[in-house]
Amino acid sequence: MKLRFSLIALFLVSFMSAQQGTFSPYSYFGLGDVAPKSLIENRGMAGVSMLGDSIHMNLQNPAALANLRLTTYAVGANRRASVLSSLEEQIDDTKVDRGHITNLDYLALALPLSPKGAFSFGIMPYSATSYQIGQTRLSMLTDTVRTTFEGSGGINRVFASLGYQLFKGVNAGVLAHYNWGTKESRRLQASDQVQFGTSDQRFSRIKGIDYTSALTVTIPFKFKQSKLNLHTSAVYDFAYQLDASNEQIFGSFLVSTGADREVFNVDLGSLENSQIEMPSKTTLGFGLGKPFHWFIGAEYATQDMSFFKNEFIEPVNSSYEMATSLKVGGYFVPNYNALNGILNRVTYRAGLRIEDTGLRLNQTPIEMVVGSMGFSLPMGSTSADRFSSINVALEYGSRGTTNNGLLKESFFGINIGLSLNDRWFVKRRIN
């Protein structure tokens, strides 16, 4: 299994660097369309991540990793179909823009270091940029002026996390990401009455490190002869800076063919090397559950996006304020210890996420609502991997609004992942 994992890792890392990631116009803002930082299992519960167990890693909450007892390999991918519409397009359905994207979500490995601690590492996308937006207007001379905004690129990240049990029921953890990638934007403008158009291209090569700390507390108690657990968690993403190496190119092109006429590099001065400021984020969680049977929990996160800063690219008519998100989700297992009937050991999940992204366009809040449901199907056949599973999560949601000349994005996603368990470092009892 170790050899297979290594071969899969080499292939998927190469694939991740080449994937498109998104085609959302909202990827124009900030660092792009930020990818979910969660396992498929958590995504089926709207991303609720406070809960840790002995057979699953945790990509969001490193403290929950301390409960791991088996070496775990995890890989996830998604297929997402989106529909973009404005107020005009809602009236005329033939103008609605549709598309779909397939992406790798993560590739990770976690292993227990002791009965009280575990370590994990892997690779995942941070954000993706890919869009093409057209705008038409009449000039003062009644010429038709067409402006096209295009963007591409993406940021990937490798991570390492450590979770440790401080004492019974209390876990702490730390997580570090190294981020690297590019973001490119291009603005083209042309008029029907002019032979040449103008272009403004901007490139940023981005890199940097960010850190996360976490704490989970589990309190067991009895209620009407049932053994229940009360779960609380706190996750803090520290504020961080990403270094950006920037380049800007002005030029002209022939409207009839699109061929460049002349281009020249802009002297950016102090902006040639800049820093992107990312604000801190705090997530608090509370949940209740019966071990191996059911769980329901909620997480609330706040991030003051008014502290976000990228001086090199500052879109007009946009600003940032406080971002918030509320996630509510849970799972249910009919009979975890069932010897017969695989459906008895299936884990069923569902959740709802309501988010204010903090982004304001034309003074209008950009909000997101996502409902999810999913399941984990056991697939292991031996004592070493009987806890392995195929995980599926379905998501349906929307982002943005058609008010004030904006776009609304509706999407449906199918997320599929594998969680494979193995036992390493077993001491031989018979030589």
Write the layout of secondary structure elements.
Layout: H1 2-18, E1 33-34, H2 40-43, E2 71-85, H3 87-91, E3 97-114, E4 117-138, E5 144-167, E6 170-191, E7 196-223, E8 226-237, E9 240-254, E10 260-265, E11 273-278, E12 281-290, E13 294-304, E14 318-320, E15 322-332, E16 347-361, E17 364-378, E18 389-400, E19 408-422
Antiparallel strand pairs: 1-4, 2-3, 2-19, 3-4, 4-5, 5-6, 6-7, 7-8, 7-9, 8-12, 9-10, 9-11, 12-13, 13-15, 14-16, 15-16, 16-17, 17-18, 18-19
Describe the protein.
The chain is mainly β. The chain has a single domain, classed as Porin (Beta Barrel). 6% of the residues lie in helices and 61% in strands. It contains three helices and 19 strands. It has helices spanning 2-18, 40-43, 87-91; strands at residues 33-34, 71-85, 97-114, 117-138, 144-167, 170-191, 196-223, 226-237, 240-254, 260-265, 273-278, 281-290, 294-304, 318-320, 322-332, 347-361, 364-378, 389-400, 408-422. The chain has a 14-stranded antiparallel barrel with strand order 2-3-4-5-6-7-8-12-13-15-16-17-18-19. The longest helix is centred in the first third of the chain and has 17 residues, at 2-18. The chain is elongated, with a radius of gyration of 24 Å. The model has no long low-confidence stretch (mean pLDDT 87).
